[in-house]
Write a structure and sequence with these properties.
Layout: H1 9-12, H2 14-32, E1 41-45, H3 52-59, E2 68-72, H4 74-82, E3 88-93, E4 97-102, E5 108-112, H5 124-140, H6 147-156, H7 164-169, H8 174-179, H9 182-190, H10 194-217, E6 226-230, H11 237-250, E7 255-257, H12 263-274, H13 281-305
Parallel strand pairs: 1-2, 3-6, 6-7
Antiparallel strand pairs: 3-4, 4-5
Length: 310
């Protein structure tokens, strides 16, 4: 296992994304004492592979990874891992958000995942942007400041709401910076701020509605299918509670489950299927143990670096 930088080439550029991928893959190969030509198949679940054009632009740049390379977006691996290849719907919410689903006929849908400029409903970016928008609205209407507004001003190192215009827009990566506000919103909600609580509950409701849209398209709605959730945004109990409440109200027969495997192990599962490797209960048990080890190691890495992994 290895940890490297972001691979979302829409945001960091192709050269940086591929360089980060190469760093991660080479570190993993080194740990396994392998070379890439010894790897028969690989599944790459990369952020921003949203269309056939994205896949086409990147495919020639990743052929070195293995003899056969599958290239899709990262939510595909999360879906495979959540249900170990079986039917279900997974909601992912970190910096961005997307819902993926698959039914027993192997029909798949993707709902959301349009990026922060078009729509990443219920994502960390959405939460952060909503928080900033509430400050702007409160300032325009001369409403008293709140715990949230004071926390956000302090976080950006400014004293007046009007200073946020410069502080927010002059960031090198404003989208990531805005997304980083989500834990702060969750903290102020825990401290009793009503505006923060409303923002988080709206995020959970939006994500649940994306799940219901996916269920309708897959003809799973109203039936007892599993729904799983993945990503740092769901660490907020306010988001998770609102998500569960909306699903319980609108799709009471849905079954909330914990992901069977981490997305990284979902990628392993997809790579093995592409390589026509046999799948057995013993293999699933091994992948579950590997998922636990990855979680443990990523947790240690996050403590050392101060980063979060979803």
């Amino acid at each position: 296992m290895s940890v490297a930088g972001p691979s979302g080439y829409h945001n960091v550029g192709v050269s940086t994304a591929i360089s980060n991928l190469r760093t991660g893959v080479n570190a993993a190969l080194s740990e396994a004492h392998l070379s890439s030509n010894e790897v028969s198949g690989a599944f790459l679940g990369l952020s921003c592979v949203d269309s056939r054009r994205d896949a086409s632009e990147l495919r020639s740049k990743v052929v070195w990874v293995a003899r056969e390379v599958m290239l899709e977006d990262d939510s595909t691996a999360a879906l495979a891992g959540a249900f170990a290849g079986g039917p279900g719907i997974v909601a992912l919410s970190g910096t961005g958000s997307v819902v993926r689903g698959i039914n027993e006929r192997n029909q798949k849908v993707r709902v959301g995942g349009w990026g922060y400029l078009i729509g990443d409903d219920g994502s960390a970016f959405d939460i952060g942007r909503q928080a900033l928008a509430r400050i702007a609205s409160a300032t325009d209407s001369a409403t008293d400041d709140t715990l949230l507004s004071r926390a956000l001003l302090n976080d950006y190192g400014v004293h007046e709401p009007e200073e946020l215009v410069r502080a927010v827009n002059m960031q090198e990566d404003p989208a990531s910076r805005i997304a980083s506000l989500a834990p702060l919103v969750s903290q102020t909600a825990s401290d009793g701020d009503a505006v923060s609580l409303e923002i988080l509950e709206e995020a959970g409701t939006k994500l649940a509605r994306l799940v219901i849209t996916a269920a309708r398209r897959l003809k799973m709605y109203g039936k007892p299918y599993e729904v799983s959730r993945v990503g740092s945004v769901f660490e907020s109990r306010f988001v998770s509670s609102a998500f569960d409440k909306e699903l319980g109200t609108k799709w009471s027969s849905s079954i909330a489950t914990t992901p069977v495997l981490r997305p990284s192990m979902g990628a392993v599962l997809l790579a093995m299927r592409a390589d026509r490797a046999s799948f057995s209960p013993g293999l699933l048990a091994s992948l579950k143990e590997a998922s636990k080890e990855v979680s443990k190691r990523l947790g240690c890495e996050a403590l050392r670096s101060g980063t979060r992994h979803t």
